[in-house]
Write a structure and sequence with these properties.
Rna Polymerase Sigma Factor, Chain: A; Arc Repressor Mutant, subunit A; 2 domains; elongated
C-alpha cells in the first residue's frame, strides 16, 4: 500500500467514525446532528429513490420518510453490521420498494373512489335531488383540476366515506401524507370553487 492509499484510508476511516458519532448524537435526539447527516446524504438518497420510483414528488417524500425513520431508530443502528451510508441506502431502497408495492393497492383504491363518485344521494324532493346532482357535478369538475394524488384521497374521504387511517391502510400511503394531501387538496378545491364554497 503506497502513501496515497494510506492517506485515503485514513480519511475514509475518520469520515466513517464521524458518521457513527452523528448517529449516536441523533439517537440522543440531537437535531443538529440530523441536519448534518441530511445535508450529507439527502441528495444521493433522493437519487436512489428517483431511480426506483421515477417521480420527483415521491422521491422527495422518501427522503423525508428516511430521515424521519433515522430519527426514530438511530438507537438501533449497529456499526458492526453496516456502514452508515450502507444503512441509509438500505432504508431508502426498502422505503421506495414499499412505495412501489403500494401502487397495486392504489390501483384498487382508485377503482373504489370511482365507484363511490358515481353513487348519487336521493331525497324525497325531486328539486333537491337535482340541486345535489348539480353541486356534485360541479365539485367533480373542480376535482378533475386537482393533482391525482390529492384527488384520490379527497374522493375516498368525502365520497367513499373513509377515515384518514382507512385511506392510509387501503392505499399504502403514510397517514401523515394522507392528511397533507387532503389539506392541500381542500385548499385547491376551495380556490377552484371560489364563492360557491360556502353553499356546499
Amino acid at each position: 500500500m503506497d502513501s496515497c492509499d494510506r492517506k485515503f484510508l485514513k480519511v475514509d476511516t475518520a469520515s466513517r467514525q464521524d458518521e457513527i458519532l452523528l448517529i449516536s448524537r441523533i439517537a440522543e435526539q440531537d437535531q443538529t446532528a440530523l441536519s448534518l447527516l441530511y445535508d450529507r446524504y439527502s441528495r444521493i438518497i433522493y437519487a436512489i429513490a428517483y431511480r426506483i420510483l421515477n417521480s420527483a414528488e415521491e422521491s422527495e417524500e422518501i427522503v423525508l420518510d428516511v430521515f424521519t425513520q433515522v430519527w426514530r431508530i438511530a438507537k438501533n443502528y449497529n456499526s458492526q453490521k453496516a456502514r452508515v451510508d450502507t444503512w441509509l441506502f438500505m432504508l431508502t431502497r426498502s422505503r421506495a420498494l414499499d412505495r412501489l408495492r403500494s401502487y397495486a393497492r392504489l390501483d384498487k383504491a382508485v377503482a373504489v373512489s370511482e365507484d363511490a363518485i358515481m353513487m348519487q344521494p336521493h331525497t324525497d324532493s325531486p328539486e333537491e335531488d337535482v340541486l345535489i346532482r348539480e353541486r356534485r357535478s360541479y365539485v367533480e369538475a373542480c376535482l378533475s383540476e386537482i393533482p391525482d394524488e390529492q384527488r384520490l384521497v379527497l374522493e375516498l374521504a368525502y365520497f367513499g366515506g373513509l377515515s384518514h387511517s382507512e385511506i392510509s391502510a387501503k392505499t399504502g400511503i403514510s397517514l401523515g401524507t394522507v392528511k397533507t394531501r387532503i389539506r392541500l387538496g381542500l385548499k385547491k378545491l376551495r380556490e377552484l370553487i371560489g364563492d360557491e364554497w360556502s353553499s356546499f
